[in-house]
Structure formats: C-alpha cells, structure tokens
C-alpha cells in the first residue's frame, strides 16, 4: 500500500482512524476527530502481531 512519507506501508494501523494528539493541517487523513493525550491500548497486542504477520506474508507472496 502506498505511503506518502516512506513510499510503502504494510497498512497495519495500531490506532483507530483519527485518534491523535495532533491536528496537523497537512494530515492525509483529515481533521482529528478524537484528540487524546493519555496512553491507552486500542487493540490487544496479539491482534496487532497477527495482522502484521498477515501483511508480511501477503507482501512476500505478491513480490
């Protein structure tokens, strides 16, 4: 998946859409809807690891 910053991205997002502690005018995702400043876990680590493994496997198979 394309990424504006790095050229490529695995597409694994560890934070729900637009939960952020910034509201950057140049953000490709638009305005921040949920400004947060506290540390919290949005997804269980096991889910993130599983999604990352799937993304890597898919990327390797399509290359």
Task: Give an overview of the whole structure.
The model has no long low-confidence stretch (mean pLDDT 77). Helix content is 27%, strand content 13%. The strands form two sheets. The protein has a two-stranded antiparallel ribbon with strand order 1-2. The protein has a two-stranded parallel sheet with strand order 3-4. It has one helix spanning 45-61; strands spanning 2-3, 7-8, 19-20, 34-35. The longest helix has 17 residues, at 45-61. It is built from one helix and four strands, in the order E-E-E-E-H. By secondary structure, the chain is an alpha+beta fold. 0% of the residues are buried. It starts with a strand and ends with a helix.
Can I get a quick summary?
By secondary structure, the chain is an alpha+beta fold. The protein is built from 1 helix and 4 strands, in the order ββββα.
Task: Give keywords.
flat, 63 residues, two-stranded antiparallel sheet
């Amino acid at each position: 998946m394309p990424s504006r910053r790095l050229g490529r991205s695995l597409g694994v997002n560890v934070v729900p859409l637009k939960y952020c502690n910034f509201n950057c005018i140049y953000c490709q995702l638009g305005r921040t809807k949920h400004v947060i400043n506290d540390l919290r876990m949005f997804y269980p680590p096991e889910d993130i690891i599983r999604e990352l493994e799937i993304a890597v496997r898919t990327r390797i198979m399509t290359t």
